[in-house]
Design goal:
This protein has 342 residues and is an alpha/beta fold. It is 33% helix and 18% strand. The longest helix has 17 residues, at 316-332. The structure holds phosphoenolpyruvate and manganese (II) ion. Phosphoenolpyruvate (PEP) binds at residues 102, 128, 132, 184-186, 207, 237, 272.
Length: 342
């Protein structure tokens, strides 16, 4: 950590900073430049808080050397991590193809959609049972009945299943039925929820909050990792912007940015990022080309009857087409798409 002093810092203030650093059990190395004086703090930075030091009179800035997301950082783990979702791998050259409806609506409907996405090459089935809806009067999901349907249909088609958890009280039952637990954008900074999913041993799909930075996303992943659960997959799903041409602003640069900062796999969700079926295929391809470890797409066989996110759903044939194109890009990049049969 480096402490930068204010230009007019007095000798007494400098001495006080050094005393404080030594009092905390660290060594201090004073360096006087022509314009600025800095103090290098020598010792294990992970055991030191920057904020209290920044509050000392005469201090202009405290600059940590290490990223605050130490477990998620690529420094901690230079090789890309591979997350294993009941046999389907995501990361380290393996592409996750997650597809399914926004919400589980009935056994028949999920079965039809699962048949189609499986045939198109999806390797993980998604479907919400607990839905985070803006309106309390909108369809909230089938709850535990939805989880049962998801498990049954996933097993029938040999697809691991992922579903969202919104509340720590739902974790036990979701853990019982799902192979991967999704934390939605609205809950990315629900720290008690993150801590609780960190105590399970299920892979976690962590979606980026719509007003969160890449570093916020990595700090949220750190919450899960800090509890001992190392199976985290990040997901870029669009952030708020001033432009209402698309539902959110698809931040494709977040993919290589995360890749540089972290060893965790990162996938893209062009469905929620754009909200437009016509833009989902090109944005899915852009994500894979940018290095994403997977693509998450909402598919529905009758969008006009969908109980949530119908307008952004791809039809099965449209999904099959983009999945084919994704495979072509994956092949160029030397990526593998694993499935349970292999
Ligand atoms: C979803 O996956 O259906 C969902 C609600 O996503 P997000 O949390 O990204 O809005
Ligand atoms: Mn949705």
């Amino acid at each position: 950590m480096i402490i930068v002093l204010q230009p007019g810092a007095s000798e007494a203030q400098i001495d006080h900073v050094i005393e404080r650093v030594r009092g905390l059990g660290f060594d201090a190395h004073l360096s006087r430049g022509t314009y600025r004086t800095i103090i290098g703090v020598i010792g294990d930075e992970t055991k030191l808080q920057a904020a209290p030091l920044a509050a000392i009179a005469g201090v202009a800035q405290v600059l940590p050397i290490l990223p605050p997301f130490k477990l998620a950082s690529s420094e901690a783990h230079p090789e890309p991590s591979v997350v294993n979702v009941r046999g389907v791998k995501i990361g380290g050259g393996n592409l996750g193809m997650i597809a399914g409806p926004c919400a589980i609506e009935s056994r028949e409907r999920l079965d039809e959609i699962a048949t189609a996405v499986k045939a198109a090459g999806a390797n993980i089935l998604r479907g919400g049972a607990f839905k985070p809806r803006t309106s309390p009067y909108a369809f909230q999901g089938l709850g535990v009945e939805g989880l049962r349907i998801l498990r049954e249909v996933g097993d029938k088609h040999g697809l691991p299943v992922v579903t969202e958890v919104m509340d720590p009280r739902q974790i036990e039952v979701v853990d019982e039925y799902a192979d991967m637990i999704q934390i939605g954008a609205r809950n990315m900074q629900n720290f008690s929820l993150l801590t609780e999913v960190g105590r399970t041993n299920k892979p976690v799909l962590l979606k980026r909050g719509m007003s969160s930075t890449v570093k916020d996303l990595l700090m949220s992943a750190e919450y899960v990792l800090s509890q001992g659960n190392s199976q985290v997959v990040l997901c870029e799903r669009g952030i708020k912007s001033f432009d209402n041409e698309t539902r959110n602003l698809y931040d494709v640069a977040a993919v290589p940015a995360c890749r540089k900062l972290s060893h965790l796999p990162i996938i893209v969700d062009p469905s929620h990022a754009t909200g437009r079926p016509d833009l989902i295929p090109p944005c899915a391809l852009a994500g894979v080309a940018a290095g994403a470890d997977g693509v998450h797409i909402e598919v529905h066989n009758c969008p006009e009857e969908a109980m949530s996110d119908g307008p952004q759903a791809l039809l099965p044939a449209q999904y099959a087409e983009v999945a084919k194109q994704i495979r072509a890009i994956a092949a160029v990049l030397g990526k593998t798409i694993s499935s349970l049969e292999k």
